[in-house]
Amino acid sequence: MFSKLFLGGILVFMVGCASLPATLVTKSKDPITDLTVILQHPQANQGKEIRLGGVIASIRNEQLQTRIEMVAMPLTADGRPILHSPSQGRFIAYIHGFLEPLEYTKGRLLTVVGRFSGDEKGKIGQYPYIFPVVQVSGEQLWQVQQQVQLNDPFWMHQPCYSFNCDRWGNDLMMSNFGVNGRIVERVVL
Question: Which tens digit of pLDDT belongs to each residue from 111-158?
Fold first, then answer.
């Protein structure tokens, strides 16, 4: 009985983690989530709903809207940009109103939903580029959270038998003797 409740609780937790934030929900069931689809067939996708995300390359507040240049990245099922994935290209997101440039800063992760409204000519450095344009109806800023993950699971830890031990047998100098670990990055709200 307990195991069924435990498994049910895990499933509810996993489903909750994979849901889209309310700001990224679209009216259509299958919005375009890959910028390369738009780049390959811009005329056929004119006016269609999209959900795109990635890294902010630049931001400029205009009189009635904010122009954000984005480097597109693949998204997870819950709309988060996948870290360290290759770029799909760049696009322009127009968001109605003023956005604080210190909050929507270069290098920050952002996902937007809206409609593909055409192309805009511009440059990346001196290179001419045609940017797909999205009229945004919702957006979600993300944060990157870093954690240190030890390679040795806690149940495999060997007790300490030296002068560097605490009273529970844990080595107080463990970090000085090459404990293996890695930094794990996650995208969070």
Answer: 999 999 999 999 999 999 999 999 999 999 999 887 776 665 554 456
Task: Yes or no: say if 54 and 89 are a contact pair by the CB < 8 Å rule.
Answer: no
Residues 6+ apart with CB under 8 A from 186: 144, 145, 147
Q: What is the dihedral of CA 159, 160, 165, 166, to 10 degrees?
A: 10
Identify the DSSP state of 41: -
d(CA 132, CA 130): 7
Q: Give DSSP secondary structure letters for 92-158.
A: EEEEES---TTTS-TT-EEEEEEEEEEEEEEEETTEEEEEEEEEEEEEEEEEEEEEEEESS-GGGPP
